[in-house]
Amino acid sequence: MRTVFRQVLLLASGLLLSFQLMATEAGWRQLSLPGAAPDAAPVVVALYYPTQAAARAIPMGPFTVRVAIQAPPEERFKGLIVLSHGVGGTELGHTSLAEALARDGYLVAALRHPGDNWQDGALLHQGAAAYFTQRPQQISHVIDVLLKDPMWKDRIAVDAQGPRIGALGHSAGGYTVLALAGGQADLSRIASHCASERAADPIFCGVGRNAGAPTGTVAAPASPLLPSLRDPRVRAVVAMAPAGVPFTAASLADIRVPTRIYEAQLDRFLVPRFHAEWVAQNMPGAELQRIPDAWHFAFMDTPSSAIPTDDGDVRADPPGFDRKALLARLASEIPAFFDKVFAASPDTK
Known about the structure:
The protein is an alpha/beta fold. It has helices at residues 2-22, 95-103, 122-125, 128-146, 172-181, 187-197, 202-206, 249-253, 276-282, 323-343; strands spanning 25-33, 43-51, 56-60, 63-69, 80-84, 107-112, 158-159, 162-163, 165-170, 234-240, 259-264, 287-291, 308-309, 312-313. It has a ten-stranded mixed sheet, sandwiched between helices. A two-stranded antiparallel ribbon has the order 7-8. The chain has a two-stranded antiparallel sheet with strand order 13-14. The relative contact order is 0.13.
């Protein structure tokens, strides 16, 4: 009996050791990628990836990352997830979600959108057509570069459909990832929406009012219907509080990419019935998750200092709302969503 008991203990100890060896943390590196054109600005990208190295908390501006800087990456990743922040945002604003995806086995490329970030708002000055076109193009360019980079390309899982690539975005980043899935913008929708619903959706209709932002106040292009920016390599999408007004109903109905949409129920920045709910209503296959009592910035990590916006401080939440609990929930649900999508097609390398 003692011999059997000892064997059981040894087996259990071995399994525990094996689990500990397999457990991963989030590694982190910053890249500066060349722009898509010779005169285009470089694209700053924060890479999060699975590693065996120990992570630690490191303040970076108003956000704190819990990563292993420059740590050696694992040999294989489950896939690549590109992460798109909101208007005037940062590649670090969703670090807890990026870290969770990395710990789950994904390479996450969180870019700082050129011309639309906390340091530079030049893209808004170029008008709605440029804004809604260039953001998705910037994501596709990052995918192009990483799939050619010898450091990363062979680590990304490939199956019969090609590299496993997903996209995660918040706010204007939600628009961006839905455009990659096949949503097509018609700028006349913005103009008509803001002509009739400005009082009900005042922040969206007032963003960048003095900078030629997506408000319909700038000179309209020859054709208000923008070209499709679908990237067929993007095979799964999560959009958090997305800007949805620009999309045509027909293009949303044609999307076949598995999509999950998170709605902040009390969102004043992008009022749900015009944005998240409208997108979900027109996408037959979309899954809508409503977050009760949440404001627009509930999907971002809470910064250590004030970040003012047209809807107040990014740190602010409605009384009684638990942002930490929501982010913990998303850190479990979002990796599981991508896992489920990619599990349908076996890895071929």
